[in-house]
Design goal:
Largest sheet: 10 strands, mixed
CATH superfamily of the largest domain: Periplasmic binding protein-like II
CATH class of the largest domain: Alpha Beta
Radius of gyration: 35 Å
Structural class: alpha/beta
Distance between the termini: 102 Å
CATH topology of the largest domain: D-Maltodextrin-Binding Protein, domain 2
CATH architecture of the largest domain: 3-Layer(aba) Sandwich
Strand content: 15-25%
Helix content: 25-40%
Number of domains: 3
Shape: globular
Length: 632
């Protein structure tokens, strides 16, 4: 019996010692800056470390360069992705384009602080100045020094970090190149800020954008990178900045960094940045996919807890800063999820049958055209406004001046917002039988070419104002925008209330000197309608849709998160059904007196007591009674 007890005690002691060993194992604190590239690289370090059995604590999006570097000096963070040029600048040194010399100088200066730059990931991510090709051609700019020669003021769109940098920021660049009289619009560092920078560039509120060479938006939007002909910017080779004691004490960390050494090309990084910034994939899943593709993680490895949310868009929805912003907002509502966007002939049908959770559609998609006019469907409900799509009717300057005079119009493929709105306009104008409509998936440039050649009277597209493709098309001197002023007359707006009269302001496009009357529809995010099952089918009042094809309504919490991520969102057009969480809260006040048993009993007792008192007050006065004398 004693032997058994001793064995049991020995097992307990051994288990406690083993647990103590686990608890004493050092934890690697991995951090990143608040932009996609830094988060992706930090995730690679963290995932490879975990694969080596290292305990990892993530501190993603810790802060800007100054903050995250100081946190590493103080031991709050052990390692994060940095750039040798950035480190050089923040150590008060002059920038240089010699990468090896930069790294040597940085490591010499960092040594006394217990920090060091490990060998690089394999690519350099330099600052670049970018412009749209249209604006660059208009101003005759190919290199940064050309900006100093312009006789028009230049507006830069930058991130806040670039404004604060001590030696390689906006002010220093302007002094180096002699750029005077410029202004700037600064946005927060990160994906949202990057979207705002790109939007400012595309809508022409800014002329030049400060970007990174590995930004996916450069290739996606066909931007022109200006030559740094004075070699102002230092080289920014990406490499881990690590605490020396972490490198010495965390077993396996050196092996992790060795695997990542030289493993990533600029093209790899640009593709991964695009996946996060434009395709709304999580940094964690993008990092995993890359590591698996390079054989650094086992096949089938995936990040725990990441679901895939399917988003349906009409066939005409392409890549834009609005789309990218919408996708990231949706991801905010489904935290930790990846998104998959598919173009669908009927996005709202995709919601109803459960093949998508969210749709990006115009107000026109909530209606079908019946014999008596537009008929509302009950498949979806809107919950956030992305903006407005404006009708652009592009015709020959020498051609018909009104849609009512046209015989042949070409538009986007069937199922698109353009095709749906055009069909409704023609129906309301009673032109369905007199106008031949051609549906095409060709580029807008090709469609405008068919107008110039005389094949069609006009091309009809629903796009946001200042759309680049439309702007490029209107440069052609043979075409212009045709007014749709007839829509505001004759009761059309009453019949199709969701197609609103609008005006394209003068000078929205080159050589557009007058405002143009047109129409617009609201562009929204929508989710499936919450439906109730009949009692006994799945359960009383069951929401959900096992019998409805699998559609799952979006929760009020997700709606709130998405709307917050989008920012100041407009009021949803009343022509569309709205998510229940956005309905005004009505407080029903009962006019009936409240009932309380205790209070009622007390009131009854008080009433009885009052009656008794009154009764006593009205009793006759008592008579005196005298005993007869002599009566014993």
């Amino acid at each position: 019996m004693l032997i058994i007890n001793m064995k049991s005690i020995a097992v307990v002691i051994m288990f406690a010692l083993l647990m103590g060993c686990v608890d004493d194992k050092p934890t690697l604190k991995v951090g990143s800056k608040p932009f996609s590239e830094s988060a992706i690289l930090a995730e690679m370090i963290a995932q490879l470390a975990e694969n080596e059995g290292i305990n990892v604590e993530r501190n993603m999006s810790y802060g800007t360069t100054a903050r995250v570097m100081e946190a590493t000096k103080q031991g709050v963070i052990d390692i994060y992705p940095e750039y040798n040029g950035t480190s050089l600048i923040f150590l008060g040194q002059a920038p240089t384009s010699d990468s090896a010399q930069s790294t040597t100088t940085v490591n010499t200066l960092f040594k006394d602080q217990g920090l060091e730059l490990a060998n690089g990931f394999g690519f350099s991510n330099d600052y670049v100045m970018a412009m749209t090709p249209e604006r660059a051609q208009e101003l005759g700019v190919t290199k940064i020094s050309d900006l100093a020669k312009l006789d028009v003021p230049i507006t830069f769109t930058i991130d806040e970090d670039f404004l604060e940098r001590p030696a390689d920021g906006l002010q220093q660049m302007s002094r180096r190149y002699g750029i005077t009289g410029s202004s700037h619009i600064a946005f927060p560092i990160g994906a949202e800020g990057k979207d705002q920078q790109i939007s400012a560039l595309l809508d022409q509120s800014a002329d030049v954008a400060e970007l990174y060479a590995t930004d996916g938006q450069i290739a996606e939007y066909g931007l022109v990178v200006l030559e740094d002909d004075q070699q102002f910017f230092p080289i920014y080779e990406s490499m881990p900045l690590v605490r020396s004691d972490a490198l010495a004490n965390v077993d396996g960390l050196a092996e992790v960094l060795k695997k990542l050494e030289g493993a990533i090309t600029s093209e790899d990084m640009q593709a991964m940045n695009k996946a996060v910034d434009l395709d709304a994939q999580t940094a964690a899943s993008v990092a995993t996919n890359f590591l698996v593709s390079k054989g650094m993680l086992p096949e089938g490895a995936e990040v725990a807890g990441i679901d895939e949310i399917k988003v349906a868009a009409d066939p005409g929805v392409g890549r834009s800063s609005t789309t990218a912003k919408a996708l990231r907002a949706i991801r905010a509502g489904f935290s930790g999820s990846d998104l998959e966007v598919t173009n669908h002939e009927s996005p709202l049908m995709a919601l109803e049958n459960g093949s998508a959770r969210v749709a990006m559609v115009g107000a026109e998609s909530f209606y079908s055209l019946g014999e008596a006019g537009p008929e509302a469907n009950q498949m979806a409900e809107a919950f956030a406004v992305l903006g407005y799509k404006t009708a652009h009717l592009i015709g020959l300057k020498t051609g018909p001046k009104s849609i009512t005079e046209m015989k042949n119009i070409v538009t986007d493929q069937e199922g698109t917002g353009s095709a749906i709105v055009l069909t409704m306009l023609l129906n309301s104008f009673d032109l369905t039988n007199s106008v031949n409509v051609t549906y095409s998936d060709s580029s807008l440039e090709q469609l405008v070419g068919s107008v110039v050649s005389g094949e069609h009277n006009a091309v009809f597209v629903m796009e946001e104002e200042n759309d680049r493709a439309i702007a490029r098309s209107l440069v052609n001197p043979a075409v212009n925008l045709v007014s749709l002023e007839e829509w505001a007359q004759g009761g059309h707006t009453a019949r199709f209330s969701f197609i609103r009269p609008a005006t394209i302001p003068a000078k929205t496009y080159k050589d557009q000197f007058r405002p143009v009357s047109t129409v617009s529809t609201q562009y929204v995010l929508a989710g499936p309608v919450e439906k109730k099952q009949d009692t006994g089918e799945v359960g009383p009042g069951t929401a959900g849709t096992l019998l409805d094809g699998g559609a799952v309504p979006i929760s009020a919490e997700a709606v709130a998160s998405i709307r917050e991520a989008i920012g100041d969102t407009d009021v949803i057009d009343p022509s569309m059904p709205v998510h229940a969480s956005l309905a005004p809260e009505i407080e029903v006040v009962s006019k009936a007196l409240p009932f309380s048993a205790n209070v009622s009993i007390m009131n009854i007792l008080l009433i009885l007591f009052s009656v008794w008192i009154i009764y006593l007050c009205f009793l006759p006065s008592p008579r005196s009674f005298t005993m007869p004398e002599g009566d014993d």
